[in-house]
Specification:
Elements: H1 2-21, E1 32-33, E2 46-51, E3 59-62, E4 68-71, E5 75-78, H2 84-96, E6 104-116, E7 122-126, H3 132-138, E8 152-155, E9 158-160, E10 180-183, H4 188-191, H5 193-219
Parallel strand pairs: 1-9, 6-10
Antiparallel strand pairs: 2-3, 2-6, 4-5, 6-7, 8-9, 8-10
Length: 220
C-alpha cells in the first residue's frame, strides 16, 4: 500500500507546486541600483512657467530633441546638460532683464515611463508636487491584477533601492527623466485563489478516495 500511496502524494504535490510557481516575471528580480544625483533634464521633459500677471509668458514648454526649449520672449534656451537648479536660475535671470520685479515660478516636468500592471502604460510628464499614486492615476490606475502597494522605481531595467509608497511625492524621489515606475502583478496563486481552492478540494477528495481504496484492498 505504501508505494502506490507515496506515488499519488508525490504527483499531487508536484502539480500544486507548479501551479503556485506559475506567474509573470517581475522586473524587480533585476539587480538593484543605488540612487544618484545625476538629475539633468532630457529631451521630452517640459518646463512649466508661471509668471505673475504675465499669462502670455506662462505655460508648459517641451524640451526638443536638440536639448533646447523655446520660451516666450527669450527664444531658444539650452536646457540639457546642466543641473535643474542652475537652469532655473538662468531662466529667472533672463526674464529679469525684460520684466520689472517679476514673480516667476519655474517647474520641471520629468518624462517618466509608467509600466507594468496599469491600464494605460506609457510616458507621462510628472510634476514634482504629484504623488506616486497621482502618477499611476495618469496611467489609468492599476489593473485588477496589479499590486500598487509594491510599486518600484526602475532605471535601465534595474530597481533603484529606495523605500517609498503611493503617498510619496515625485519631488522626494531620486527620479530621473526616462526612469520607470513599475507596478508588479499579484502572484498567480493570489490571482487564482478560486481555482486553487477548487483544485485543492478536488485533490483532497481524490487522495481520500485513493487512500480508502488502497486500505480496503490491503485488508482484503
Amino acid at each position: 500500500m505504501q508505494r502506490p500511496l507515496r506515488s499519488v502524494l508525490f504527483v499531487m504535490t508536484a502539480v500544486l507546486a507548479a501551479a503556485c510557481a506559475t506567474g509573470s516575471p517581475r522586473a524587480a528580480d533585476e539587480p538593484a541600483l543605488k540612487a544618484s544625483g545625476d538629475d539633468a533634464l532630457l529631451p521630452g521633459d517640459m518646463v512649466r512657467l508661471q509668471i505673475w500677471r504675465e499669462p502670455d509668458l506662462s505655460g508648459e514648454f517641451p524640451i526638443g530633441y536638440d536639448g533646447v526649449v523655446v520660451l516666450p520672449k527669450l527664444g531658444p534656451v539650452a536646457a540639457t546638460g546642466v543641473p535643474p537648479e542652475e537652469l532655473e536660475r538662468r531662466i529667472v535671470e533672463m526674464y529679469q532683464r525684460y520684466l520689472r520685479n517679476p514673480s516667476i515660478d519655474v517647474v520641471f516636468l520629468r518624462r517618466v515611463n509608467v509600466q507594468g500592471a496599469v491600464m494605460k502604460p506609457g510616458l507621462y510628464p510628472l510634476d514634482p508636487t504629484m504623488t506616486v499614486g497621482d502618477a499611476l492615476a495618469l496611467a489609468g490606475g492599476p489593473t485588477p491584477n496589479g499590486k500598487p502597494s509594491e510599486v518600484q522605481l526602475l532605471r535601465g531595467g534595474q530597481r533603484v533601492t529606495i523605500d517609498f509608497d503611493q503617498t510619496t511625492r515625485i519631488g522626494d524621489l531620486p527620479i530621473r527623466s526616462g526612469d520607470q515606475l513599475f507596478v508588479p502583478e499579484r502572484s498567480w496563486f493570489v490571482r487564482n485563489q478560486g481555482l486553487v481552492s477548487t483544485f485543492l478540494g478536488t485533490a483532497t477528495t481524490i487522495l481520500i478516495t485513493v487512500f480508502t481504496y488502497l486500505v480496503s484492498k490491503d485488508k482484503s
